[in-house]
Amino acid sequence: MEIRSTTDEDLDVFVTTLHTAFGLFPETPAEGGGGVWWSALEMDRGLLARTADGRPVGTAASYSFELTLPGETLVPAPGVTAVGVLPSHRRQGVLSAMMRHQLTELRAGGEFLSVLLASEALIYRRFGYGPATYTHRLTVPRHRGALALPRAGGTAGAPTTGSVEVLRRAECGEILEEVYDRYRRVQPGALSRPHRWWALRAGQPPIAPAARYIAVHRDADGVPDGYASYSVDSGTLTVDETITADDAVFTALARFVLGHDLVSQVVFKHVPPGHPLRWQLADFRAGQVSDHTDWLWVRLLDVPRALTARGWFTDGELVLDVDDPFLGERGRHLLSVRDGKADCVPTDREPDLSLDISDLGSVYLGGTTPSTLVRAGHVRAHRPGAAALADALFAAERTPHCLHWF
């Protein structure tokens, strides 16, 4: 079997092989080559697995993204995508060979982490990825959707001094791109959406060409500072995503969609764990949580670089014994945090925590607490207090959340 990098000339065979692996048929791109999820593929970042006689049997690729780490640090993050093996060649080592090839190439290119959305949870832990952000769906019957006024001097639930304007998706492309970019730069776990994605209408709504209404929030000076993308079908208003870094603006957009006439319920498709919206409902039980699931998975390729790249909010020291069975590596690292910065060096000291590289990926953004993984039997704590210290160290300034689909 041969695994080789792809070029633009390989696009058709790459797309055909990928869709065959999933039992699907490719859509027809719109004029100009956009409007389908795979139109933003970067073919210089793709891999094609072929048999000895040249038949394509597997694909893998990655996008050029930026990931926002705790502390509002932006780092390059290859977004692994389009991974598939033909049904006739599964369980023959093709997938493992492609993933090892890809991780080796990424590391050789200077990357210290990669991310993906996992089609199946059992697959990607084997390759060192761990779930790092989570999301859920919140459904609110419209007749029970009143928001309570804030108490104890709070302001998040109070009406803003701004305004909400309803536009069609085609009328506000630049607004969406600008607002999303401001949001993702301060939201841990968020990925960039390159201009290429917006221009080609690649991905899911509101990037994709599907018809959507956009509720745009503007501040008191008329500057857009948030939006909600939504559609209405059979009495249900479904919000694809609500984008803003301001809790008060989020509440204003939620109040707008919850007050929409001629709908029986409002569905917020992507709400991060611990979001205050459910608590803002006058009737707490009106908000029904469902479809709680993992979203962004993280894989560290260079532990010291990854740990020193993010921001930290508690001082302390931990010795981490990290096992990376897929790449056949093991390292013991002394993590020292002072004044928001970390140093990470090899050490012979006894470990505080022993963990798999996939578990380190899960705790990296602050969305999974190390103590949870200790209790689950994934991570071993070697001394009392080690898990609690790790919880404090790895915590982020706000819950990491990723909305971007790729």
From TrEMBL:
Keyword Protein transport carried by entry: no
Keyword Acyltransferase applies: yes
InterPro entries associated with the record: Acetyltransf_17, Acetyltransferase_Eis, Acyl_CoA_acyltransferase, Eis_dom, GNAT_dom, NAcTrfase_Eis, SCP2_sterol-bd_dom_sf
Binding site for acetyl-CoA: V83, G84, V85, R91, Q92, G93, V94, L95, S96, S119, E120
Transmembrane segments: none
Highest taxon in the source lineage: Bacteria
Active-site feature positions: Y124, F406
Pfam family, one: Acetyltransf_9
Keywords for this protein: Acyltransferase, Transferase
Domain (N-acetyltransferase): residue spans on this chain: 1-152
PANTHER family: N-ACETYLTRANSFERASE EIS
Similarity-based family: Belongs to the acetyltransferase Eis family.
Subunit composition and interactions: Homohexamer; trimer of dimers.
Name of the protein this chain belongs to: GNAT family N-acetyltransferase
Species classification: Bacteria, Bacillati, Actinomycetota, Actinomycetes, Kitasatosporales
